[in-house]
Amino acid sequence: MKFPLLIKAVALALVFLAGIAAALAQTPPGAAPQAGQRGKDVMWMATADALAERMLDLAGVTDKDYVIDLGSGDGVLVIAAAKRGARALGIEYDQGLYELSKRRATEVGVAARTSFIKGDIFESDLSAASVITLYLTESVNLRLRPRLFALKPGTRIVSNSFQLGAWRADDSATAISFKALLAPFLESTKDHCFFFCTAYLWIVPANVEGRWRIVGGELVLRQSFQIVSGVVVMGGKSVPLHGRLRGQVISFTAGNTDYVGQVGDGRIDGTTVRNGVATPWNATLSAAAPNAS
Ligand SMILES: C[S@@+](CC[C@H](N)C(=O)[O-])C[C@H]1O[C@@H](n2cnc3c(N)ncnc32)[C@H](O)[C@@H]1O
User: Which class is domain 3-203?
Assistant: First the structure.
């Protein structure tokens, strides 16, 4: 068994034991929450501070962002985002955690940039987010996936440990630190993460599925999440293409030509590079297809 797998197994065992030990009831108002206590769809565990910073780094959170944490617990991700100057919203079902997170945001001086809703993540509007943060489970993430995939292109989604099934992550980062093994003896564990130490990033892709007119021919694009395939048809010849989307930026290769472009409303504008020579190119949508991802 590889060492990270061993850590994961130990972590899961600890979480399981914590879950048994914790009271099954919601956090009584004013009481300290217990790691592993039951939540509506997922139990409560806080993201380690070190991983919270990694998650926000991975998503590139700045003061321009509006971050929504789904199941915000005691507010660790909302508060960390607000400390970077972002506006941040936490949606949390548990009354006690909701109140605790509001108190904590006030105590650390970020109340003006934070808001909290006591509610259900499955009934909340996420459309204003530029960044979504998650620390749920893979099955809950999969239930959320259609709504996450429908967010505006370029929205970043960053998750503590749990992924989105066939929608593969665009990037990942880890905050694991072997110093974490000394965590019980360290004064501050802020810079150390012991378990649940990997962050995954997805960038909602534009929908490009369909047929596009290009000078002298046509592009036929198919799309599975951020992965693009299809053909460039020119002079009666079809050349297969393979590439990907990162938000509204599409890049693909067909034969010996590399294409990069910015997807706009029914248009793609960009550059091709062939034999080291860059040339502007554009495409106009002629027949859109719904993305079946
Ligand atoms: C693993 S904790 C993560 C807390 C916080 N996001 C963090 O990273 O520290 C999951 C949280 O989701 C909350 N939760 C579970 N199901 C929920 C739902 N349907 N609506 C809102 N919150 C929910 C739980 O009460 C818990 O606080």
Answer: alpha beta
